[in-house]
Design a protein that fits this description.
alpha+beta, 5-stranded antiparallel beta sheet, elongated
Length: about 160
């Protein structure tokens, strides 16, 4: 059975649109992750130290900052509450330039920063497998995203 040229154009169009959806999902995941990750990945020249959590609210935890590289000590810094477990915890951080906000460093901070990309990979895997019918690629993206999310969960 020979396919109609308009049918073939619709198939190519569907693949192009779904490919664009996958691209948008992955770019959004990278951009959302890069907001925190670039402070960890490109940490040279930034203030490094240790944060001790003194209290947590719904969205942020606050604490003291003890510098490790000659930076100034700070009486109050804040970090995203999903990174800090409870009052009294201590972990390495880097200060966002020009603010009193910190980002957790080390393996746990690195993995936590890339969680949005992990979620984007899992979502993109559904589009890749269901819409584009590329099952092996979908499994690869899904497993990579799931592994990143699981590693971040275990590390924190």
């Amino acid at each position: 059975m020979k396919r109609n040229p308009s049918h073939r154009a619709l198939l190519y169009g569907r693949s192009a649109v779904l490919g664009l959806v996958v691209l948008v999902l992955l770019v959004a995941g990278v951009l959302a992750s890069w907001d925190s990750a670039h402070h960890i990945v490109l940490a040279k020249g930034r203030e490094h130290g240790t944060m001790t959590v003194t209290g947590c609210g719904d969205e942020v935890c606050t604490g003291t900052f003890v510098p490790g590289d000659g930076a100034a000590a700070r009486a109050r810094v804040s970090v995203d509450s999903s990174v800090a477990a409870r009052k009294g915890d201590r972990f390495p951080v880097v200060v966002k330039p020009g603010t009193d906000e910190v980002v957790r460093t080390g393996a746990a901070g690195f993995l936590h920063a890339w969680v949005p990309l992990g979620g984007a990979l899992v979502l993109a895997a559904l589009v890749i497998g269901g819409g584009l019918r590329l099952t092996r690629t979908a499994w690869g993206a899904g497993v990579a995203g799931g592994a990143l999310l699981l590693a971040a969960f275990i590390a924190l």
